[in-house]
Structure formats: structure tokens, C-alpha cells
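## tool: complex_structure
## caller: assistant
## args:
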Amino acid sequence: MSRYDAIIAGGGHNGLVTACYLAKAGLKTLVVEKNDWVGGAAVSRSLYPGFTYSNCSYVSSLLRPEIMRELELPKHGLQIIPYEGGAVFTQDGGYLAMYRDHDANRREFARYSQRDAENYDRYSRDVLRHCRFIRPLLLRTPPDPTSFRPRDLSELAYIGKKLFDMPEEDIYAMIRFWTMSISDFLDEYFETPVIKAYLAVSSIIGTALGPMSPGSAYVLLHHYMGDVDGNIGAWGYARGGMGSISKALMASFVAAGGEVRTGSGVAEILISNGRATGVALANGDTFEAPMVISNMDVKRTFLKHVDEKHLPPDFVKSVKRFKIRGSSGKVNIALDGLPTFPALPPDSPCIRGDLHFTDSIERLEHAYDDWKAGRYSRDPFLDMMIPTTTDPTMTPPGKHFMSCFVQYAPPKIEGRDWTDADRDAFGQTVLNQIEQYAPGFKNLVLHAEVRTPRELEAEVGLTEGNIFQGELTFDQLLFNRPVPGYAQYRSPIDGLWMCGSSTHPGGGVMGAPGRNAAAEILRSLKKPAIMGDAYAVL
Amino acid sequence: MPSFDAIVIGAGINGLAAAGRLAMAGARVTVLESAPAAGGMANLAHLSTGIDHRIEKALDLASHGLEWAEPNVASTALSASGNHLTLKGAFGESIEGTLSAADKAAWTALRRDLLGNAAALAPFKEMTPPRLARDHGANIWDLVRNGLALRRMGRDRLREFMRLMLINVHDVLEDELGDDRLKGLLAFDTVLGHHAGPRSPNSLLGLYHRISSRVQGRQAALALPRGGMTSVIAAMQKALSTRGVTLRFNAQVNTIRVDDDRVQSVTLANGDTLTADVVVSALHPATTLMTLVGAPQFDTGVVRRVQNIRSRGTTSRLTLKLKSMPDFRGANLRTRLVIAPSSRAVEEAFNAVKYGAFSPAPVMEIVIPGAFMPEADSDGPTLSALVQYAPVDLRMGWARGRGAFLKVIMEQLEAHAPGLGALVTSADLVTPADVAMRYGAPGGQWHHAELSVEQMLFLRPAIGMAQYSTPVRGLYLASAATHPGGGVAGSAGWNAAGQAIAGGGAA
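## result:
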């Protein structure tokens, strides 16, 4: 039996981020991971000879630049390559292109509507303003508004001041934006269905909401508030697949003296006298530490790996009703060559971005109605990308890897578990949709991996296959995330902490929950500040 | 006491409430109503969730004839098999019918929490929304004070209160209850009058809005006025006439004249011009500002905001004349009857309206006034139903759609009251499109502007107009589109008059 200062249960990207900071602060830190590899949902895997798959998360933007810098990820091999926007194919054989350049987009919008082109300036300005407000909050621990502790009060005052520093009308506009549906929001700017459809999808990716659900506009922000090299809202590929992020984190962790054990996950978090004392692994190994930090989602952590007798009943109730809803699947495809989309002009740079086939908000909403009824969408929304158009290191020359994020897919089909036949039919729906816009595409398919919420849960350990470890609705954001009273990365058990996406500010390959958790832990240990800005505030 | 001339446009509940308060402050008030009678959209309602207590008291409505035939109407969640559930007393104090002991206990706890949360929100409904800016600190203290008062409920309750603030009702019902009939009824009550389904985030606020009201001091009660909802209006009219308010009917306002950003006069369709220091409009803000004043008087930002006020009506009213009393498989007709088999059924009914169609299986509440007041039925029983959902802009067109929608409603009724169809002698269906036309309410929305979070409090009806004032000095908004919204309570009109008195008497 070995003793550590801290054990991280689960080697997802947030777990690794926390681990890096703790190790850098001099703690003897161990990461335990059930899979034979680390990274959780940020992985590169070889599932077909010669091909590298980003088989869960597939693009990067949200990873906080502070983390990149402080953990020296570029030095440890991480390279993010921005990509050109993308395109939506319309049912009438046309397309809408999206570029990185604002003016190019504006010209593209003008092909459809002069009015939309003009309003695009106002739209971009408004969304950016909302992003600017929220970005600094990502790396701060949410204050508890029911508390009178000086730290909570001063943090509340900080947010209040930030809010009241804005012009009055901007405050209202922002509160409005946070609570409305993306469909209503876009109606205030645009009239062209395909433009609205393209812009709306960022509001539903990963959530169990439709574009007409109030609150969905906020989720748009969740996908816009990232940046690549300081370009807010830009997205990029991690060279070598998303696993490169985890690999760089792991290298940074090992360089700081950390230890990783893969191949056996946590069976039980050990608790005695109300304190975490270590972990027992599925293979029988036990490790002791005065601190256990769980990277698993809040349901998995407390309902599966902690004996209920250690927890207050109200807390268990809250955890049980925390909404983690699977809403998406993934189809990862090895291709013999680049498919041709007749609608797209040859040599269009858009092929390097995200490609969609859903050309109206109504089609998106219909896809959501299927989910509500417990079915996978008959006409699903695909966020399709071919990263190898930008990063040729992932496949043999001339071949391509295609990643299709698919929404909606419920965690259960009309109340029963997914079967292999369901999964295959779901995969076919996706291939058929692509074939419609790229004739001959199916002939290029060398291998396809179809992942429903069932597979995501089984492999990555995400409850119900929810990619954000919990819905991003207001009842589960900020001081409510994951559950009221426990939004500060702590749990009812001394020494048991949380650092996964179930905590503020939520999912995406962002690393913010991991960094915030580390900041709280180090603060509780009265360790010197090894991270800048946010931690230094108090 | 200040003395000035005030014109109120629209004799609905809010217009009358505003007129009453203005008159009490010493104004000479004229109310202009385009219809031949008062009441406006109050005539669409069939039960009351209560008149704002300030109005009831100040205008002494009881002495002017307001009387309740039943001040505490029970609700029956109808089951197609006859296994009904009856919620007695205000918001189901007790439940009659087969219900598991676990659900009974869960309902007691949930009811207590919901009523408590709603009561905590009631003071926010009464206040004039504050302005959120450093240099307008004055009335933000109301908000802060009301906010701090919430701490009195204790830390654990407060945390729960905040979690539930912007949640959807479906999740709450699924978390706490098991019985589909009960969940269906509560889901229906939450979304009645709204453009939302039970699964729409923030929808629980719709229920809070409803159950924060009081009838005779009893929170969340539903009441049937003797003589129907028109008698509420009649009592208001009487109260106003004793205070010297003049009501002019068939008086359609065509324009509100503005000079130098100040209101000058209003001109009627018949050419009459009336001058006044203060004009309070209880019409929809878009009608008031864009049609009566005219868009050229406003900045583009104001025009855009007013045009972006969302007002999608979803509720229809059906009135059936019957040969004899119907039989809803034995349900007590002296209750409100609700057809909403489950929360999921309500959500599925909502799906259609998103795509411009009416629900193939609509949900509804039914009141048979004759069951409470036999005198109301001199020419045979009347059945009144509020039905959801149908959009104002039905894609197939209402000319073709009216008959089709009536058919699915009748099928739904027939399924719960076999033989009902044969009893019908006449049917009158008022769709959201009819509401828009008849009452001049764009969108046919019962709250004028949808009562959704992004159109609440300081965002209602639009940014910059939440204090009932407009960019035009002397012109005030008093419609249900202003805070705190509709529901035949008169609060919006009462608050608006307060602002007019404070800010805009004779200048």
C-alpha cells in the first residue's frame, strides 16, 4: 500500500488539469484511470490500422489559455490548429459557407439576404459583449449567495460590480440573452432559415434542449466563449487528435513528479469517520491519501463509488435529481478518400470546417421532439468534420478520418436499453444523410465506429452519455452546479473533492473545473498561489 | 391633491384599475373603449385567480357588487376511464380519489414548497420593476429589500428556492411525483395561457405566477364570480363611476399626438380630439407606440425592441350550449374539470404549435357555470373550455383550420364525456387569431406579451419601458404586457397609474 497526498479518481482532462496543479504545488499526486489510456473524452485512438480517431470530443476552443500557459502544454507537444468555418448544405442543393473572417461571412449572408448581412454586425457585436462578461467568471469559484462568509460576499460584490459597470441597457440585454431561446434570439437579427440554422446549432450541441427551448441562447455562449490564440469564438483541431491535449497534460503532470495508474478504475472511495482516506480499485489495489478528487460526474461519484451511509440524505436526493441526460451520439469513420459534395465549389476551404445538413431551426426542433419521445432523431443534426483536411498526421496519405457528432440520441429508447440493432440502425441513419449530399460517400467507408449514449457511458464513464457531465440549464449552473450548497468543488465528506465537468463552469474540453478545483484545494491547504489572476484575487 | 386631466385607453381590467387610481389621486379621468362594453379580454376568462388586493380594497369592490359564487373551486383531473382525481381547497389542500400514500405525502411536501416559494415572490409582483443602473439607485432598493427578505426562509429553503427559480415544471413533477393525472393537471396549470410546454426551461415560473395570487386572502384559490367574470368588470365600473370617472364606449382611438416628446392629445375615429396631461394606454405596447403614436416618433432601438416583444397566443376559448348537463364519467361538475392526462401529453400538445399547427390531442380546462349557479342556465347549460394549443398564425389558415380544430377538441371532450356531442346546440370557438382581431391584441396572447423570463420584471414589456413609462413624456403603458403581466388582476394598471401620478401630473 502506497501513500499519497492526493488521489485523482479518473484521468479525464479535468482530472489531469487538477493533478498537474497539485503536483506542481509539491503534492505527491496519483491519477487512477479505469481505461488503459488517459484522457476520458479527449482521446486519440487507433481503431483501424493506420488511422487515428478523435472518437469522442473532436475540436478544441474552450481549453483555457491560462491552463495552456501555466502547464506549458505547447512545450509538452500540444498544437492547436485553427480551421476555416464550415458550411451548411441545403435541401435544394445549395449551401451556406461560413468563414473565420467576419467580412467574408457578411458577404456570404448577403447572397441570401442583404438585411441579414447588415444585422450580422450587430449580432456579432452583441454576442461578443456577452462573451466578454462571462469569460472571466469561468476561472472563478461560484459564490454561495446564501452565505455571509467574507469570501462569498466579496465574490458576489465582484460579480455585481462587473455587472453594474456595464451600461444600463447592456445589463438588460444580457439578462434577456441568458434566459431566452436561441430561436427567438436569432429571429431578432435574421430572416434566412439556413443562416439561423447554422448559428443555432451551437446552442444545442451536447444538451437535451431544442433551439426553441428558453435558456438555449446561453448554451451558444458556452460554445462561443473559447478562443484559439486569442481569437474569441474560433475553433481549432488538436494536431494528432484530441488525445494530444491529454497527452500534453500527462507529460506536464509526469514532469512535475506525478504518477498515473491506468487499467483499473476506482471501485470505492474509502471513507472513515466522515473523511476520505483513499481509494480501492476494481483490481483490489488500495491507495491512501487524505484527499480524493473525483473527476467522475457527480452521479457516478456519489451513487456508485461512495457508500450512501456516509452521505446526508438531502445530498443524496439532490444528486439523484441532478439532470445528466444523454442527447448525442458519435459516428467515427475511416475513409478511403475525400468525399465530394457537389453543392460545394471545388477547392472551397469550407470542407476543412464543420459541415451540417440541417438547414432550418424547425428541422432541429423536430429532431429534439424525437428525443423527448424517447427515440433517436429520424432526421438527426450532424456536426461533421474531416480533421485530416487540416491535420494529415492522423491517417495514411490520401485517406481521411471523418468525425460525425450526432444529435439527438436518448440514453434509453422508449424506456428500454439500446440494442446492437438500434445502434446499427442509428449509424445507418447518419450514413444515409451524408450520402444524400455526397453521392458515393458510402463506397469510401473503410470502417465506422458508431457510439450511442450507451457506448459513451460504458467506455468513458459519462452517465447517460452526457458529454457535459450534466445539463447546462440554470437550475444546474453557477451556485447550483452540481447541487446547491456544494458548488465550490467540495462535498459533504471532508477530503473528498470534485473536479469534473459536473462542477462550474461545466463541460467542453475547457479544463476550467479542473483548475478551479485545484485552486480551492490549494487554498484550503494554504499552499502558495501557483496560478495567476483568479487565484490571487483573494 | 394634484389635479390634472388623464385619458385611459382601453376599459379592460388594467385600464379600469389605472383609471381608478388616477381618479383617487385627483385626476379628471376619461376612459376610452373601442368596444360597446367594458371588460376586454377579461371576458375570455372563466375563473378568477384573484383581483389585486390593493385594488379590491381601495375601490371597495365588494360594496359595488363583487360576489363569489364559489370562492374556492376544486379541480378534477379527468381520467378517460372514470378514475378521476379531485383536488379540493386551494391548490389541492386535500386530494380525493385513488392515489398512493407515497404520492399523497410527496404532494403535501411539494405543495408546501411551491406555495411558499410563490408567496415569497408575491412582493416582486407588486413592486414597480427597478432600473439596474448606478445612477438610478432609488427603486433598486425595493429589489434588494425584497431579495434580502428571501433570506428569512432559511438557508436550505433559499437554496432550493434558487434551484427551482428557472427550472421546468416537468422535471420537478418527475422528481417528486408518480401519478400521471396529478402531474398532468399541474403541468397544465403551469402552461395555461403561455407559449410554453411543461418541459420548456423556466416554465415553473408560470405556476408561481398563478399560485402567488390570492382570493379573499386565500393563496392560490380559484374563484367563480357570481354572474361570471363580467361581474368583476361591472363592479369595477360601478366603483369608478362613484369616483367621477367617465367611460366612453365605441370610442376608437386613432392617434396619440406627440409634440416635442410630450403627449398632447388623442384623436378618435369620429374625429373628436381630447387633450390631456397624462395618457395611460392599456393596449398592447406595439399598438400604442407603433400604431397610435407612430414609429417615426421613436429611435430605431426603441422601434426594434417594441417590434421584438413576443406575443404568441396559444389559448382558445370554446363555449358550448348544451341541451342538458353532460356527464364526465361521474365527475363532480361543481369543480373545474381538466383534461391533461399526463405532463408528457401536455408537452406533446405543445409540440404542434411550434410548427404552426394545432394540437392533435389538445388539453383543456372546463367550467360549467350552471353547476355552481343554476340561475345562469336559463336557456340550458353552458360549457366553457380553455383549450391549448393553437397558434395565432395557423399554417393551414384559420378559414380551413377552425372546423378541423373544433373537431379534435370535440373528440377529446367526447372521449371524456361520451354522448356530449349529441347535447350540443351551438358552439363558439375563439381562437388566438380571433382574440387578436376582437381585442386588438397582437398575437392573441392572453398576457399581451408572453410571460417568459426574458420578458419579465425589468425586461417587461421591453428594455427601457419597464417602469410603465415610454420615451414620450406623459404617456404610460398599463397593459398586461407590463409587469407583472395578465391574469385579470389589474396589478399592471394599478402600478402604471402610480408611476403616472408620481412622474407626470400637470407639468
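## assistant note: The two ends of chain B are 14 Å apart (CA to CA). Chain B is about 35% helix and 15% strand. Handing back to user.
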